[in-house]
Specification:
The chain contains ten helices and twelve strands. With about 325 residues, the protein is an alpha/beta fold. Strand 6 and strand 7 form a beta hairpin. The radius of gyration is 20 Å and the shape is globular. Bound molecules: N,N,N-trimethyl-histidine (AVJ). N,N,N-trimethyl-histidine binds next to strand 10. The site of N,N,N-trimethyl-histidine (AVJ) has 11 residues, from strand 10.
């Protein structure tokens, strides 16, 4: 399902060992499986092709989407404390680096002479912009390796370097995309990739009043709607599907019992759709939805319990009370 290939460094101070998963085949297989589930759904990492990554970057600039700015401020303020854990010859492994600005905020304020970084993202466009963002840190002797892969495949592709302190950075509330069993299991995968005394830096969005949550995921400008609908565009382009984008609308709902914001694509009419390269035809009823993302929201204590159950000990927690966002530092036990 995935193939490895190495290619030439695409930036002067980056050594690149990219593990490109075979995008289209994995996408076709997932579309076939998940679109036939009840309810119909798609894994949210498929939102991030080049256009999806660009739309997400734009969402981060919206006044209603406060995660990015709140986290950046916490990273800047506490960079020196955080960097202590990988100061001597260490490396940072970032899961879902996006445009690189989260890591740049940390490293620009950490006061380190040199560091190695492994960037893992499913989006090649995101990795390319991360390399550009990090290239601006001219003072720092930084060696970057990119891995175009899912989190799990990226972690498996890491070279074991015992003796080099490692910080896994899992920021931007990316953990929020996992359901509770999935997040516990994935934190176990992270723990298994680390040695005792390595660290995990986790940025997670907190529960807040429903109107704020809905504005963050259904913005009046329509960027989040475009981000969501781009998934249909992507299936049309890559899987020879025939979704009519004007027959769908974006919906965000706060599911209080499950503590998650859900994104859906609502079918405005009864319609038949074909996803030819996934060998799939199905009928959507009027009002039926395709569930495209969950963003789980946490309480500070819940973060501690969840991550400590996976074999970590909490060392520090910083909270932006206004945006309701938590940055937590854990040590592998
Ligand atoms: C990048 C997955 C953390 O869930 O808040 C933004 C993605 N979705 N607006 C999130 C997203 C809709 C974002 N994550």
């Amino acid at each position: 399902m995935s193939e490895s290939r190495s290619h030439q460094p695409s930036s002067p101070h980056a050594g690149v060992d990219r593990q490109a998963s075979d995008g289209r085949l994995a996408f076709a297989q997932s579309a076939n499986f998940y679109l036939q589930q009840t309810p119909r759904q798609l894994p949210s990492h498929f939102l991030y092709d080049a256009l999806g990554s660009a739309l997400f970057d734009a969402i981060c600039l919206l006044p209603w989407y406060r995660i990015t700015r709140a986290e950046r401020q916490l990273l800047e303020r506490h960079a020196v404390t955080i960097a202590r854990v990988f100061r001597r010859n260490g490396r940072v492994v970032e899961l879902g680096c996006g445009n690189g600005e989260k890591l740049a905020a940390l490293l620009a304020n950490a006061g380190l002479p040199s560091v190695r970084a492994h960037l893992i993202d499913v989006s090649g466009a995101a990795l390319a912009s991360s390399l550009q963002t990090l290239a601006a840190l001219e003072e720092l002797d930084l060696r970057v390796t990119t891995h175009q892969a899912t989190y799990e495949d990226g972690l498996l592709a890491l070279p074991p370097e015992p003796g080099r302190p490692t910080l896994v950075a899992f920021l931007g509330s990316n953990l929020g995309n996992f359901d509770p069993p999935g997040s516990a299991a994935f934190l176990g995968v992270i723990r298994a990739s680390l040695q005792p005394r390595d660290h995990l830096l986790l940025g997670v969005d907190l529960v807040k009043p429903e109107p704020e949550l809905l504005l963050a995921y259904d913005d009046p400008v329509g960027l989040t709607a475009a981000f969501n609908k781009n998934l249909l565009l992507r299936m049309n382009a890559e899987l020879d599907a025939d979704f009519a984008l004007d027959r769908f609308r974006h919906r965000a709902v706060w599911n209080r019992e499950a503590s998650r914001v859900e994104m859906h694509l609502v079918s405005l009419v009864a319609q038949d759709v074909h996803v030819r390269d996934a060998a799939l035809t199905f009928r959507l009823e009027e009002g039926e939805t395709i569930w495209t993302e969950s963003s789980y929201k946490y309480e500070p204590d819940g973060i501690r319990r969840l991550v400590e159950s996976a074999g970590f000990a909490q060392r520090d927690q910083w909270i932006d009370e206004s945006a309701r966002f938590a940055l937590t530092l854990f040590e592998a036990a």
